[in-house]
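User: I'm writing a short report section on ligand binding and want a predicted complex to refer to. Could you take this sequence and phosphoenolpyruvate and write out the structure as tokens? A short remark afterwards would be nice.
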Amino acid sequence: MRRPIVAGNWKMHGSREENARLVAGLVDGIGHGGAEVIVFPPAVYVAEVVRLAAGSAVAVGGQNLCTEAVGAYTGETSGAMLRDVGASHVLVGHSERRTLYGESEATVAVKFVAAQAAGLVPVLCVGESLEEREAGVTETVVARQLDAVVALAGLGAFVQALVAYEPVWAIGTGRTASPDQAQAVHAFIRGYFSAGDATLGDQLRVLYGGSVKASNAAELFGMADVDGALVGGASLKADEFLRICDAAHSVGGRG
Ligand code: PEP
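Assistant: Sure. The structure tokens for the complex follow:
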């Protein structure tokens, strides 16, 4: 059974005061059961958000981690440090990391392995640009992004990982992939894993990300291979995010 997941990527937003208000709103409204809920605050706030969410059903993750475990890497945060302060997950290969910070497919693969080595569940983000979609190479691009990680980590590593399909043209643009567009790529991703291991393909949870809001979540979650969402902007308001979680609850698990 694939339990739905709703993840909130706060990006570089928030303050101690805003985070406390947001987490209090989530903790009050979330309940237990239903969708798995994870929030991804900026690194400097992870420890405090872990404390604020303690005892609730809200898990906490990092938005990024260093390729290296320890050493002279000024400004970096290791997977072990995220784990040490209570994070359970980490985003790997978010398109903003790939495009704004030049993370190559090889770097993303190393980060995926580093995350698992530290005991974190990596959420591998993949997706095509608008030019790539218009050129009809979406599947080629997504397969190449997956290949890079599978080549280093092995297919079996995805038993302890999540994949987020995030078309770059839909992130923060207000332009969401249609449910059919999302479903087509999600089915492709599931098929990619099923080809190597049918059970893994059945069990892998694939989240959709790209301008998910309370108003479009239910129809996206209604698609057979969409197991939840990675939400950016709409995760910064407790009531909006909770409504997305409710939409995931009502769809329930699959597989
Ligand atoms: C994201 O940050 O991964 C994202 C999908 O953002 P938004 O929901 O704002 O498009």
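A remark for your report: Strands lie at 5-9, 36-40, 58-62, 89-92, 121-126, 162-165, 206-209, 228-231. The CA atoms of residues 70 and 104 lie 21 Å apart.
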